[in-house]
């Protein structure tokens, strides 16, 4: 099994630059589209990073955000929207009018839609990695499925096995947020949902996942 490869990085870079162009093209967009494009412009970990930022604000552990927390979180992203637009966004996500948003539902609506076949192959990849079946991928899981012996930095002595495996996990965590070395299924799916948005062909996406995870 190998870490996301050069092709994937190219797709991610293309998606990010395209999103940035769309964000700044001056065309009218609804606030949720703007937020999605902002996440895309930050690469495959954009939505994932936003999810982690919101979870860090969840002081009471309720996995829900009230309007005040949501406004603060959106402001922190640097998105160019008015307070009225943020409130409109909140109302869209707060479907039952309860005054709070479930974070999992929020991220589901924010990430691009995918055909079930793509979700299935992402789930299969996660299940292969999650060797102890605890719903989280850790270094210990990776040691059972990912051999670093052929990795050039391992061979040169530049990096240890743990350092290389930690780097692999950080692919999914991005440069921001909580780098805890643990990847949940939701984070794994959100990462590949963004990659998926840059791939039109279902067969190519399937092939990419099977090659990356040797399925």
UniProtKB/TrEMBL annotation:
Highest taxon of the lineage: Eukaryota
**A GO MF term:** calcium ion binding
What SMART domains does the record point to? EFh
What Gene3D superfamilies does this protein's entry cite? EF-hand
Q: What residue stretches are annotated with the EF-hand domain?
A: 45-80, 81-116, 117-152
GO CC, alphabetical? organelle
**Keywords on this record?**
Calcium, Metal-binding, Repeat
Annotated PANTHER family: CALCYPHOSIN, CALCYPHOSINE LIKE
Name used for this protein in its record: EF-hand domain-containing protein
Q: Which organism is it from?
A: Drosophila gunungcola
